[in-house]
Design a protein that fits this description.
By secondary structure, the protein is mostly helical. 74% of the residues lie in helices and 0% in strands.
Amino acid sequence: MVKVEDLQGIADVLNDPVYMSIYLAMVIWSIIWKGFALWRAAQNESKPWFIVMLVANTVGILEILYIFVFSKKKEAKE
C-alpha cells in the first residue's frame, strides 16, 4: 500500500529545480527523437516500428537506434 510519506518524497524531488530541469530536458530530448523516428517509420511504411516507438518510452534510445541502425531510406522512384 502506498503511504502518504512516500508521495511527499516524490513531491520534494519534483520541487527541486535541478531535478525538474533534468526531467524537462529528458522530456524535450525524447519528444524530438520520437518525432524524427515516427516520421521515418511512417515514411518507410513500417507499422510495427511505428507502434512500438509510439507506445514505448525509452528516452530516445530506441528512436535513435531505429533512425541510424534499423531504418533504410527508400530509393527514389524514377
